[in-house]
Specification:
The complex is a heterodimer of chains A (116) and B (108). Chain A contains no helices and 11 strands. Chain A is mainly β and 116 residues long. Chain A is globular. Helices cover 0% and strands 56% of the residues of chain B. The chains are: A mainly beta (116), B mainly beta (108). At the A-B interface, strand 5 and strand 10 of A face strand 5 and strand 10 of B.
């Protein structure tokens, strides 16, 4: 997991504040995926990005959530006006895809968001 | 929506026993992966199965992919306390779709 870096590891926000979660993919990986995990549950897909493009955002809530993966720098998952229900672990994964073949996913250690 | 149902959801057994975890879906996937997740960490890939009917062994763990590539099983022989964790199956298409998870506890 050391290859995909997520920060912060823990984030506490008050209701109504903004949360910004960062993910630096493994070197050479240009595909990033964000997942959310509630306690005792599996991971739910949120969004799939390549550099400067959102490929699939079918799992993103339509309001308050946004994601980007700029040409330079980490991928950012942004949650505006957080509510208690946003409290969860957010995981990022990266992969290398060449000519449609995915070489496998590597996950970061996650960011645990707590909304108080 | 593609759903992968895992069973059982929770399993607690004595050290040395055998166990099987199941992963079932109504969708066909190009491949299926199994992950183990420790508390406070991200999932770690255990195996990828690609071909219908494929069986892969990883020491005491045996993974099988169903003939129709919709279901899979994980069998652990002589379970050890170090096997404790959350086991997740994931179907692979353009993205990973995770199963509901099986939390396994091995009692020494």
């Amino acid at each position: 997991n050391a290859g995909v870096m997520q920060n912060p590891r823990h984030l506490v926000r008050r209701r109504g504040q903004e949360a910004r979660l960062r993910c630096s993919p493994m070197k050479g990986h240009s595909h990033v995926y964000w997942y959310r995990q509630l306690p005792e549950e599996g991971l739910k897909f949120m969004v799939y990005l390549q550099k400067e493009n959102i490929i699939d955002e079918s799992g993103m809530p339509k309001e308050r959530f946004s994601a980007e993966f700029p040409k330079e720098g980490p991928s950012i998952l942004r949650i505006q006006q957080v509510v208690r229900g946003d409290s969860a672990a957010y995981f990022c994964a990266s992969s290398q895809v060449t000519r449609g073949y995915n070489y496998g996913y590597t996950f970061g250690s996650g960011t645990r968001l707590t909304v108080v | 929506t593609q759903l992968l149902e895992q069973s059982p959801q929770f399993l607690s057994i004595q050290e040395g026993e055998n166990l099987t975890v199941y992963c079932n879906s109504s969708s066909v996937f190009s491949s299926l992966q199994w992950y183990r997740q420790e508390p406070g960490e991200g999932p770690v890939l255990l195996v990828t199965v690609v071909t219908g009917g494929e069986v892969k062994k990883l020491k005491r763990l045996t993974f099988q992919f169903g003939d129709a590539r919709k279901d899979s099983s994980l069998h652990i022989t002589a379970a050890q306390p170090g096997d404790t964790g959350l086991y997740l199956c994931a179907g692979v298409k353009e993205k990973l779709t995770f199963g509901t998870g099986t939390r396994l506890t091995i009692i020494p």
